[in-house]
Design a protein that fits this description.
221 residues
Length: 221
C-alpha cells in the first residue's frame, strides 16, 4: 500500500513546484521513503509527517548550502541525515535524529585545510507561534512553522552551522607535527617581512636628510 505526500511551498513571494514522494508502510506502523534513502526532499510538511510518524533517511549535498559555503574550504561532500518525526506524550510534534558530515575547514593556526567531523543530534520541537517556544521542554530547540512546508535544507544547514567550531584548529594529538611546522614557517616569513619593511622605512626616512645635505653643499659652492 502506498500513500502520497504532495509537498509545495510559497515563500518570500516565490512559488515552488510540487514534488511527489511515495512511502511504504512498515510493520511498526511507520512510513519509510524509498526515494529518501538517497536524495532528501528540499521541502517538507513537518506537522503532517509528525502526525504520521514518518522517518526520513538520505543525503544532502554541502554544495547546496549557500550560508555554510563561505565557512568551508571546499563544498565537496555530503551530509548523512536520519530523522524521525513524531508526536510525543506531551502532544508536541518533534523532529529527532542525527546528522553526520566531514567538512573541509581552514585551520586558523597554520592556514591549511583540515577535516572537521560533524556528528550532531537533532532535537526540534515544532511550533506554530513564537510565544510557544517558551512552553517547549528544555530538550527541544524550537522550529517555527508558519506555513504548511519548511525548507529541510535550511534546517540541516542550521544544525551544521551550530555544530561548527568558533575557531577551527587542527587536532594537535593527530596533526601536531604538520600543523606546527607550517605555522612556524608562516611566523618566520611574517617576521622577516616585518624586519624588511622596517629597514625599508628607515632608508626612506634617511633620504630627505641626504637630499638636504646635498643642497647645502651646492649652496656653499
Amino acid at each position: 500500500m502506498e500513500n502520497k505526500v504532495f509537498v509545495s511551498r510559497t515563500t518570500h513571494g516565490r512559488a515552488l513546484n510540487y514534488m511527489n514522494f511515495s512511502f511504504d508502510r512498515l510493520t511498526d506502523n511507520r512510513y519509510y521513503s524509498r526515494l529518501m534513502m538517497d536524495a532528501m526532499p528540499q521541502y517538507i510538511d513537518p506537522i503532517r509527517l509528525a502526525n504520521r510518524s514518518e522517518c526520513l533517511s538520505g543525503r544532502m549535498c554541502l554544495d547546496d548550502m549557500q550560508r555554510l559555503s563561505s565557512m568551508m574550504a571546499s563544498t565537496e561532500g555530503h551530509v548523512d541525515v536520519e530523522l524521525e518525526l513524531s508526536v510525543d506524550h506531551f502532544k508536541i510534534r518533534n523532529i529527532q535524529g542525527q546528522i553526520r558530515a566531514n567538512i573541509k575547514l581552514v585551520c586558523q593556526r597554520c592556514l591549511q585545510t583540515m577535516d572537521y567531523v560533524v556528528n550532531s543530534k537533532v532535537m526540534l520541537g515544532v511550533i506554530k507561534k513564537r510565544e510557544q517556544a517558551d512552553q517547549l521542554p528544555a530538550k527541544y530547540e524550537p522550529l517555527l512553522v508558519e506555513t504548511d512546508e519548511v525548507s529541510l535544507l535550511d534546517i540541516i544547514e542550521d544544525e551544521i552551522i551550530l555544530a561548527m567550531p568558533n575557531t577551527p584548529l587542527h587536532d594537535l594529538t593527530k596533526d601536531k607535527e604538520v600543523c606546527e611546522s607550517v605555522a612556524k614557517h608562516f611566523r618566520l616569513n611574517s617576521s622577516n617581512n616585518s624586519d624588511n619593511n622596517k629597514k625599508g622605512e628607515g632608508n626612506k626616512r634617511e633620504n630627505p636628510f641626504a637630499i638636504l645635505a646635498q643642497m647645502k653643499v651646492k649652496n656653499k659652492k
